[in-house]
């Protein structure tokens, strides 16, 4: 992969201020410019005493090596790009925190971008990150256009698919079995006697995780000889307001469900809040469950039953996996386990 050239080998300076350069550092430290370069780029190749001396001069002069020039010399920017559909949602936010910590431990910088579940925007962001020289990518999901896949192959850039698990994927996958996780929730609710189900699903637009959860729910219900009527399956985005609006549609459907499963945490929070406004007692009249486990889910006056995915582990393992690929080590995907967390919004089916 080609790197863009940089004007000036080393050093940056604010406008109007004299530029501190590599040669000045070398002259003050009494070493060659090649030695300064080795201290910065390959510190393990010089003695500790020399490393301390040169670093003290660097600190005193306030010299900052030019990242673009270092990239030209090493063919690496030390940066990993990650594209998430959203940055503020609970599971994604926790994964990002864990990913940044894991990358920092290996002296890598995390560069973040947000696609808003827009396939074209995600492809454009991936191109821009690669153009800026990232060494690898962490992407969410595994469904992409042919052009997007061809681009990743052509650039030969290591990448990891996060929040999904597919052992047949060309790229390593780090995440839960979304379909299996939702099936576990169905099995739990059926064990409580529920037979009338509804779902507030997250839109499947550019979202293979949401599609897998929906199919996992349908397949699990079929195993129990059950199904969701078309009017009891509604779809929307990932906000609390959307959850409230869609819950009102569920209430207007016939037959009214005794168990409602929501495709993400924000939709579940919205549904629970709207149930309270409508005077529906949870869980004696209806059970509501979600997917993901943001802090809000457990801190509401009525904590919400949900599927919990260890998103911190997703972030850590995704970071470690892309680094392993960069280092030429064997990199395999990993299934991150999920589990049903039973809380106050679910209980035995009401007897009608």
What does this structure look like?
This protein is α/β, with parallel strands linked by helices and 352 residues long. The chain folds into three domains: 22-65, 434 Repressor (Amino-terminal Domain), CATH 1.10.260; 79-176 and 312-337, Rossmann fold; 178-308, Response regulator (Rossmann fold), CATH 3.40.50. The chain has 13 helices and twelve strands. It has helices spanning 22-29, 33-41, 48-61, 67-74, 90-105, 119-131, 146-155, 178-191, 208-223, 240-251, 265-277, 295-299, 311-326, and strands at 79-84, 109-114, 136-140, 159-162, 173-175, 197-202, 233-236, 259-262, 287-291, 305-309, 334-335, 338-341. A six-stranded parallel sheet has the order 2-1-3-4-5-11, sandwiched between helices. Strand 3 (136-140), helix 7 and strand 4 (159-162) form a beta-alpha-beta unit. Helix 5 (90-105) packs parallel to helix 13 (311-326). Mean pLDDT is 88; it is low at 1-17.
Features:
single chain; 352 residues; alpha/beta; 434 Repressor (Amino-terminal Domain); Rossmann fold; 3 domains; 6-stranded parallel beta sheet; 6-stranded mixed beta sheet; 44% helix; elongated; disordered N terminus
Order of strands, widest sheet: 2-1-3-4-5-11
Q: Give the low-pLDDT segments.
A: 1-17
Query: CATH H level of the largest domain: which superfamily?
Result: Response regulator
The largest sheet, given as strand count, sense and whether it forms a barrel, is: 6 strands, parallel
């Amino acid at each position: 992969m080609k790197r863009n050239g940089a004007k000036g080998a080393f050093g940056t300076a604010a406008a109007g201020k004299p530029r501190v350069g590599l040669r000045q550092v070398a002259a003050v430290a009494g070493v060659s410019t090649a030695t300064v370069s080795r201290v910065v780029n390959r510190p393990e190749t010089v003695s500790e005493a020399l490393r301390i001396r040169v670093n003290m001069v660097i600190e005193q002069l306030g010299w900052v090596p030019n990242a673009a020039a270092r990239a030209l010399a090493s063919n690496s920017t030390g940066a990993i790009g990650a594209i998430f559909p959203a940055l503020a949602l609970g599971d994604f936010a926790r994964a990002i925190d864990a990913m940044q910590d894991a990358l920092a431990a290996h002296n890598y910088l995390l560069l973040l971008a947000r696609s808003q579940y827009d396939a074209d925007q995600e492809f454009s962001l991936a191109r821009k990150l690669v153009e800026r020289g990232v060494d690898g990518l962490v992407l969410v999901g595994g469904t992409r256009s042919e052009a997007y896949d061809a681009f990743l192959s052509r650039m030969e850039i290591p990448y990891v698919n996060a929040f999904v698990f597919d052992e047949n994927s060309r790229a390593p996958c780090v995440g839960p079995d979304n379909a299996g996780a939702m099936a576990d929730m169905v099995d739990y609710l059926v064990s409580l006697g529920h037979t009338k189900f509804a779902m507030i699903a997250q839109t499947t637009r550019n979202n293979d995780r949401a599609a897998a959860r929906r199919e996992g729910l349908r397949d699990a219900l079929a195993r129990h000889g059950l199904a969701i009527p078309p009017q009891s399956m509604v779809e929307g985005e990932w906000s609390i307001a959307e959850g409230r609006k869609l819950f009102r549609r569920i209430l207007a459907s016939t037959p009214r469900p005794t168990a409602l499963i929501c495709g993400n945490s924000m939709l579940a929070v919205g549904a629970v809040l709207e149930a309270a406004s409508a005077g529906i007692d949870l869980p004696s009249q209806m059970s509501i469950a979600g997917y993901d486990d943001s802090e809000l889910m457990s801190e509401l006056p009525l904590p919400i039953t949900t599927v919990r995915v260890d998103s911190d582990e997703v972030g850590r393992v995704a970071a470690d996996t892309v680094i392993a690929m960069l280092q030429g080590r064997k990199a395999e995907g990993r299934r991150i386990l999920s589990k049903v967390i039973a809380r106050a919004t679910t209980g035995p089916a009401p007897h009608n």
